[in-house]
Amino acid sequence: MEPRIQYAQTKDGVSIAFWTLGEGMPYVSMPTLPLTHVGLEWQWPELRRAYERLSERRMVVRYDGRGSGLSERDVTDFSLDAHVLDLEAVVDHLGLESFALAASGTPGPVAIAYAARHPERVSHLLLWCSYARASDWSRSPQIQAVRALLDKDWEVYTETVAHVAFGWSAGEEAQRYAAFMRESMTQEAAQAAFAASAEYDVTALLPQLRVPTLVVHRRQVPFPDVGVARHLASRVPGARLVLLEGASLAPWLGDPEAWLRAIDEFLGEGEEAAAGAEPGAAAAVHTILFTDMEGSTTLTQRVGDAKAQEAVRTHNRIVRDALKAHSGSEIKHTGDGIMASFTSASRALECAIAIQRAFAQHNETAEEPIRVRIGLNAGEPIAEEEDLFGTAVILAARIAAKAEGGEILAANVVRELAAGKGFLFSDRGDVALRGFEEPVRLYEVRWREG
Asked: What top-level class would CATH report for the domain 277-446?
C-alpha cells in the first residue's frame, strides 16, 4: 500500500512533505539533494521493493527537501543549515527521540552536521557513497562537465546525470530517472540548490562524531571514488567501512540485497534474527578482545598519578566509543585495559582496527602518546555473573600480552571466522604462551592504510 503523504513545517516556515512505512526502530532516509519526489519514488518497482524490505523490521521515514518534490517549492535558502531545519521539522513532528539517520550521496554533509549537533538523538549514522566536503565530489572532471550543462539545457543535463549515476549501459532506468528529476524541481531552483551545496564542508566535524557510523561504498563508483569513502571512515571515531561491488550510485540497483544486508547487520537486527533461529549456537560463541596500555607503570612513575590516570581515562573513552560503534560489550576494566566480547569476529576485528586508528590520530598531537596492545581470540567461554571465564578468555589475554604497542594480534580461529571479509593478516608463526603446553598460531592484523 502506498504510504500517506504528510507535512511538517520548519522553523523558517517551509512545508516539508514526508511519509512513514512500517513499525519499530525509526530509520530516517534523507532526500538525495536537491532532486527528490516522495510521490513519484513509490512508482519505481525497484525502489518500492527496497523501501518495503527496509520497513519489515523498522519504521522508514522518507521526506522531500525544500524546493523539491511535494515540499514547498517557493524557497530561496538551500544552505546546509536550511536542510538541517527540514530534517528537524520531520523528526520533531513525529516526536522521534532516537532514530537511525541514513544519507545517500549529496545529503551526507547535512547528516553529519545533524549527528554532530544532536548525538543524543541519532542512534546510528549510515552514509552511502557520500562525503563530508563537496569538493570531494565536484572535483571530478565528469561532474564539472555535467554541471556545465545545468546552465544551458535542463533536459540534456538531466539525461546526462541519469546515465552518469546509473551507468552508461542503463537504458529505461536512466530515462525514467531523467524524467523524475525534471518533475522534482525547476531548472532555476536546481541551479540555486547546487550552487549552495558546492560550499558544504563539514570535515572539521568528523572527529567530533560520537554516534555509531557506517560508511558503505561501491568499489567501481567513479565519483566519489573509493578513496573518499576510506578517508571519510578514517576520520570518524570508530566508523565502520563496508565496500561492495558495483558501479551504480543507486543502492537499489545492481545488488540491493548486499546494501540491505549491510544495514541489517549494522543495526544489529541480522544477528538478532540469527540468534533467534539458533539460540544455543549464537549465544555460545564469543570473540574476546583485550586492550592493554603499553608501559602504564613506567608512565605513572614518570608523570605522576594524576597525569597517568588522565591517560587511562583517554584510553577508556576511545575504546568504549569504538565498542559502542561496533556492537561490542564491555565485560570488565582491567586497570590499564578493557576486556570486551563480540558475537561477530568481523565486528571485533573492525573494532580493534578502529581503536588503533583512533589512538594513532590521538598520538599525533598528544603530549603523552598512548600505545595499546590488542589481542583477539574466539571460543565458548563460561558466562557467570556478567563476566566470562575459561580457556578462550585466558588465551585472548595472553595474545594481547604478546603484542607490541600499536599492534593487533589474533588467534587463527579469528582469522578463519573472518575469512573473505577483506581483513589483512600477517602470519607471525607458532608462539609459546604462558600456561599453554602447545604453541599457538598467531596473526598480526594489518590496520595502517597503505
From this structure: alpha beta
pLDDT digits (tens, 9 = 90+) for 207-260: 889 899 999 999 988 778 888 999 999 999 889 999 999 888 889 888 899 999
194 neighbors 150 (Cβ within 8 angstroms): yes
Per-residue confidence band for 166, with pLDDT thresholds at 50, 70 and 90 = low
Residue 446: in which H helix or E strand, if any? strand 440-446
Stretch 379-396: mean pLDDT: 87
Q: What is the pLDDT of residues 308-330, one digit of tens each?
A: 888 999 999 999 999 999 989 99
Q: Is 340 helix (H, G, I), strand (E, B) or coil?
A: strand
Concatenating the DSSP letter of every residue in 106-171 gives: TTHHHHHHHHHH-TTTEEEEEEES--SBTHHHHTSHHHHHHHHHHTT-HHHHHHHHHHHHH-TT--
6-267, CATH topology level: Rossmann fold (3.40.50)
Domains of the chain, residue spans: 6-267, 277-446
Q: What is the DSSP string of 358-372?
A: HHHHHHTT-SS---E
Q: Tell me phi and psi for residue 276, to 5 degrees.
A: -70, -30
d(CA 77, CA 288): 51
Q: Return the C-alpha cell found at 173.
A: 532506468
